[in-house]
Amino acid sequence: MDLVDLHTHSTVSDGTLTPRALIQYAKEKGLKAVALTDHDNIDGNQQAIEEGRRVGIEVIPGIEISGEWPYGTLHILGYYITKKDRLKNHLSQLQRVREQRNFKIIEKLKQSGIPITLKEVQHEAGGTQIGRPHIAQVLVKKGVAKDLDQAFHRFLKKGGAAYVDKFRPSPEQAMEWILEAGGVPVLAHPFTLNIKESKDLEILIAQWRRFGLKGIEVYYPEHTPLQEQMYQNLAQRLELIITGGSDFHGLNKPGVHLGTGYGNMKVPYTCVENLKSCWRRIEKGGNE
Ligand SMILES: [Zn+2]
Ligand SMILES: [Zn+2]
């Protein structure tokens, strides 16, 4: 059986392999296709595609967009991102809001008497996109918190002294951005939505389907066999396609392997075929 991995991260977001190295690694692992799905960023896709052509592996240009979800984590994967301009605008706006957020957090910390500067946080990030983990690291280094957990708990988490709300697109907006970019929106790892009843989940996903959702990520390292079965049934009932991937982050998620997750995940190539025909239908103009 030809195997694929449709959920991976590179150094463009929070993975440790560059887009090119990731594609080479996928080729070495014998995968037939791989999708690059960096968080809120499509900048690695071009390099990944070029490397794919060079080494002879099918590369799907993708993204993973974080949406607003009060009960847990909501991620929407987008596959075959081809019309980039408007999506890039949305993403750079998100980026600006995120930078402002870091700045506001630092201001709040200063106001509560903690001497911390943007420079220190940037230094901690070492040239990568700065975020709360880097602020937490500075707090630990300064001895303000004894470890990262405490830094988050006392200062950075909701309810903490320096918490600042984040801005994220709504799930519907995230799907719209992907559709606008000519892509196929797929719900990532449904278990992180924290919806216990499958009936409730079905109602929700049926609703998103009307907004343009095309698929569900069924194969995922952390899904139990029961969850996998449940999501598969759900996809079938709602006529959604099925995808899967490891959510590989390189050394940032040790133990999660490219292609196989914790070791026994298998994502068949038919997932790519179904994605591709869905994409072609969208291309033809029918949003169905
Ligand atoms: Zn995710
Ligand atoms: Zn991911």
Walkthrough of the structure:
The chain is an alpha/beta fold and 288 residues long. It has two domains: 4-82 and 182-283, Metal-dependent hydrolases (TIM Barrel, Alpha-Beta Barrel); 99-181, DNA polymerase, domain 1, CATH 1.10.150. It has helices spanning 19-28, 45-55, 85-111, 118-125, 132-141, 148-156, 171-180, 198-210, 225-237, 270-283, and strands spanning 4-5, 33-36, 58-67, 74-79, 184-187, 215-219, 241-244. Strands 1-2-3-4-5-6-7 form a seven-stranded mixed β-sheet. One zinc ion binds next to loops.
Give the distance, in angstroms, between the N- and C-terminal Cα atoms: 29 Å
Q: State which percent range the strand residues make up.
A: 5-15%
Please write the string of helix (H) and strand (E) elements.
EHEHEEHHHHHEHEHEH
What is the CATH topology descriptor of the largest domain? Answer: TIM Barrel
What's the quick description here?
This protein is α/β, with parallel strands linked by helices. The chain contains 10 helices and 7 strands.
Notable characteristics:
288 residues; alpha/beta; TIM Barrel; DNA polymerase, domain 1; seven-stranded mixed beta sheet; 7 strands; globular; binds zinc ion
Topology of helices and strands:
Layout (H helix, E strand, L loop, with lengths): L3 E2 L13 H10 L4 E4 L8 H11 L2 E10 L6 E6 L5 H27 L6 H8 L6 H10 L6 H9 L14 H10 L3 E4 L10 H13 L4 E5 L5 H13 L3 E4 L25 H14 L5
Parallel strand pairs: 1-2, 2-3, 5-6, 6-7
Antiparallel strand pairs: 3-4, 4-5
